[in-house]
Amino acid sequence: MMSILTQNQLLEKIQNIWRDSISEIGEFRGQTYIIIINKHILKDLVKFLKEIGFNHLQTLTAVDYINLDKTFRFEVVYQLYSLFHKISLRLRVKIPENEPIVDSITELFPSANFLEREIYDLFGIEFRGHPNLKRILLPESWKGYPLRKDYPLEPEEKPEEFLDLKALNERLKIDGIK
Amino acid sequence: MLEKRLSSNKYIYYPQDPFYSPLEIQMGPQHPSTHGVLKLKLLLEGEKIIDLEPTIGFLHRGIEKLAENLNYAQVLPLTDRLDYISAMNNNTGYALAVERLLGIEPPPRGKYLRTLVCELARISSHLLWLATHALDIGAMTVFLYCFREREEILNFFEKICGARLTVSYPRIGGVRLDIEDQVLEEIYNFIPKMHEKIEEYEGLLSENRIWLDRTVGVGVISGEEALAYGLTGPSLRGSGIAYDVRKHFPYDAYSEVDFEVPIGKNGDTYDRYWCRLQEMRQSLKIIKQCIENLPEGPVSSELSPDLDMPLYKRAITAESWGESAFISFLTESAPIVPKGELYSAVEGAKGELGFYIVSDGSGRPYRLHIRSPSFIHISALKKLSHNHLIADLVAIIGTLDIVMGECDR
Predict the structure, then answer these.
(1) Strand, helix or coil for residue B293
(2) What DSSP letter does each residue of B230-290 carry, written as one string?
(3) Which residues of A are less than 8 Å from B56 in CB distance?
(4) If both were cysteines, with which of A42, A92, B239, B406 could B82 make a disulfide (CB 3.0 to 4.6 Å apart)?
(5) At B5, is the pLDDT very low, low, confident or very high (cuts 50, 70, 90)?
(6) Average pLDDT in the B163-167 region?
(7) Between A and B, how many residue pairs show a Cβ–Cβ distance under 8 A?
(8) What percent of chain B clears pLDDT 70, i.e. is strictly above it?
């Protein structure tokens, strides 16, 4: 029988094992998060948390910090909750732009299956060990990753009227309209 | 079997033979029991499903990307279009997430009104679920009865805010308008009537032999598995796990009202049906308490953001130049919203509806992620329908209560 852990005890346990890989443990609006800079420990950490009683993966998503974070562009976010201990914990795994790969946790949480595919679809982050990693919301032939911040918002092929802006400006000048 | 066929000269095996199993068929996206545009690739052995792969995304509108280019107040009407059957819950979920980010709280009357309309929306959603689920299985009468009562709830919504489905009634920091006393009285009189109607549905279905044959032992999943596969809401509670966001992370007035969380035992389609019917009763109980204990006062917080909230803080300077004066707006890059990120969840009608917001200090969300229950429930379809007959698949899709608007976002 497991005993109920408090949040501080849990954070202490995590810090003792993975001290070097964690850059920050913080709190915002009463929610605790852990920033992980070494993405290779992720699967072990999630496995450890699952064994300790974190049985509900609330959500899994990614964020593109293109302008805000220079060293690590992406962040994959895991929100875990333990029904037994009644603690929720957020893991924020930093991922560099040149190697957007992270271990899949589908083996541990089958609910991560679609969520990881969604991130692959919209952010282009690969999940190593995922059973069926392909696009989910967009068609297979789609180019680019729409939720990245540098994805062009305007279509590549513009209608003709808009393409010829220079000529339009000149015509307006001749007519005397500014 | 195959070897026998091949060895005898009488039968010749053709790989192209369409009657040779396993047979692959495409179900949807126009199949009526899929509750929207869901396509399933089935691999059948006889009538048994041995593999299943859902294809989704037909209704993808990119709400998460759209939200990045709108300010916090403008995103709210987009959330109506997620689970359009219970839009009140989506609005409340989003409003709650932004309130927690801004650090504001609605006044007590606003909280109670939000709880009231959320529970009305939950009943309306469960009614639509019961109607379509029963129709899929073959009970036409229930369909007509449920739509009759749902119509009354939609009429209440119309009287409350003018809209029936895409309501946008809960706002960041409260609700848009106060509810008139006359409408509150009508809702109050509706409660005992609805209790009778639920008994009527139970009379039609709960002990109906055809209903029992089609639902008992279909789509069984144990509690731990259901949690691992990400089932939430009544789909999880049917398996005996009492996880309810209203109890675990209380929001609005749920900590002040008294209600129970009904749970099933066997985790099959029948138990999930039973759970939802009991939940409707609990919702009525909450509505009754909300109306009886409704506090007086304003309905919306004074600190709630305007619809035209700027991107950053603006400073106004006036200069006199000759005879006229110029007013110029200086844009400073002072943050208008606290920087940070948070996850906030509500108990939607389908399950846990979560919003993950990242704020960079500007008036627009840097990133908005929506954790929609339907999206994750569809990933559990393969597990639930394994080794079931193709006719049972229709019951299993129905029991998960899927809405594609929420799934594809």
Answers:
(1) coil
(2) T--THHHHTTT----HHHHS--TTTTTS-------SS-SHHHHHHHHHHHHHHHHHHHHHH
(3) 136-137
(4) B406
(5) very low
(6) 88
(7) 89
(8) 89
Compute the distance between CA of residue B176 and CA of residue B229 in angstroms, rounded to an integer.
37
For residue B372, is pLDDT > 80? yes
Q: Chain A: nearest CA to B5, how far in angstroms?
A: 34
Amino acid type, B172 = I
Q: Does B128 touch chain A (CB under 8 A)?
A: no
Contact B358, B341 (CB under 8 A): yes
What span, in angstroms and rounded, lies between the C-alpha atoms of B300 and A124?
41
> What CA–CA distance (Å, rounded) separates B138 from B214?
10
CB–CB of B134/B143 below 8 Å?
Answer: yes
Considering just the CA atoms, what is the radius of gyration of chain B in Å?
25
Q: Is the pLDDT of residue B86 over 60?
A: yes
Structural tokens at position B108: 């007590």
Q: What are phi and psi of A135, to 5 degrees?
A: -60, 145
Q: Give the DSSP letter string of B85-153.
A: TSHHHHHHHHHHHHHHHHT----HHHHHHHHHHHHHHHHHHHHHHHHHHHHHHT-HHHHHHHHHHHHHH
- CA–CA distance, B315 with A126 (Å, rounded to integer): 45
Chain A residue with minimum CA distance to B58? A137
Q: Is residue B60 within 8 Å of residue A138, measured between CB atoms?
A: yes
Note whether B264 and B237 are within 8 A (CB).
Answer: yes
**Count of CB atoms within 10 A of residue B371's CB?**
24
Asked if B63 and B78 touch (Cβ cutoff 8 Å), the reply is yes
ipTM greater than 0.95, yes or no?
Answer: no
Which of B192, B185, B201, B184 is closest to B148 using CA atoms? B201
Is B409 close to A139, i.e. CB distance below 8 A?
no
**DSSP character for B72?**
H
C-alpha distances (whole Å) from B180 to each of B21, B49, B349 are: 63, 53, 26
pLDDT surpasses 90 at B14:
no
Mean of the per-residue pLDDT values for chain B? 85
Neighbours of A135 (CB within 10 A): 16
A28 → closest Cβ in B341, B352, B366: B341
The two tokens of residue B184 are 């509150």
Please tell me the predicted confidence (pLDDT) of residue B332: 58
Closest CA to A88 of A5, A2, A176: A5
Tokens of residue B100, six digits: 């927690």
**Biggest alpha carbon distance in chain A?**
86
CA dihedral angle for residue B264, residue B266, residue B269, residue B272, rounded to 10 degrees: 10
pTM for this prediction = 0.85
Could you count the other beta carbons within 10 Å of the beta carbon of residue B220? 16
